[in-house]
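Dear colleagues,

For the upcoming journal club I promised to circulate an example of a predicted protein-ligand complex. I picked one with flavin-adenine dinucleotide because it came up in last month's discussion. The inputs are reproduced below in full, followed by the predicted structure.
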Amino acid sequence: MLSQEVISPKFKSKLGNAVLYSSAFTVNIALNCTAESLGINGELISITKDGIDRNDHDGGDPLISDISVLAPSARDKSLAPTGKGLVTLYIPAYIEYRNYWGTDKDEDGKFVRSEKYNQIKTEVAETLIQRVEKELSVNLKEHILFYDVSTPITYYRYTGNKNGTMMGARHGKENMQAKIAHHQTKVKNLIIGGHWADLGGGVPIAVKAAANAVLLTLKKEYKSSFKLLANYMDGKLSVEQLNSSDLVKPYNNSWTN
Ligand SMILES: Cc1cc2nc3c(=O)[nH]c(=O)nc-3n(C[C@H](O)[C@H](O)[C@H](O)COP(=O)(O)OP(=O)(O)OC[C@H]3O[C@@H](n4cnc5c(N)ncnc54)[C@H](O)[C@@H]3O)c2cc1C
């Protein structure tokens, strides 16, 4: 989106070639019973195949890729009505799979989801459900009220992350040498504050990047607040000392505003 004066074609090309984490294929299942009654509790269950190449564990093939099985409703009862449950299945997945999940492209190059897309989505979801049924010896299918599926196309559509990557740029030599990680941009007051600011991705990196973006802003605009927060981040102040400062506003921890 940015002009050549702001971002050089060379750096743009490096960003374009950055090594990224995979995307995901996720099946969110609503059950007519609790997940616990099927033996799926608060733990993360990982289903893996023996005797396959190491890279095939996260290669995106629904027949052999590792499946993660989680029951969000086992941990948080407010997620499903009493007596019902939620189970999530997911595998690492890639946007190129079966020619971009059977999508077409419109004149602007945007993915157009068609009948073929829905068909591939259902096929992959059913494959994962069957594998989970077999490996965990549960009759999952007969308890399904409905399920909702996200493909890499979905993750791309909702997050705008390149190729629907789950976590942005990977750790590693190539990305380090290409200097992919950066907070500051050449656009005045535009600081990167999400998982793209650093290598390694995920929630911890997004939180770290957000905290760094705040510190960079305060350093420029509110020096005393910057000093206070930086001292807390460096472990020189306790959270009580931080909160007792006049520079910090009270917050009721409601997470609603
Ligand atoms: C299936 C899956 C499983 C994961 N599991 C884990 C895990 O176990 N542990 C872990 O640490 N991480 C995990 N991650 C990764 C983690 O969710 C991300 O790294 C993290 O959410 C990135 O945070 P972010 O704030 O940078 O971006 P996001 O959370 O993607 O937030 C960006 C926001 O910007 C919005 N947006 C995009 N474009 C626009 C626009 N033009 N205008 C306005 N808003 C816009 C998006 O809708 C989105 O809400 C997982 C990701 C996926 C997809």
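Two points we might discuss: The first strand starts at residue 23 and ends at 31. The pocket of flavin-adenine dinucleotide is lined by residues 24, 26, 90, 155, 158-160, 166-167, 194-195, 201-204, 206 (CB under 6 Å).

See you all on Thursday,
B. R.
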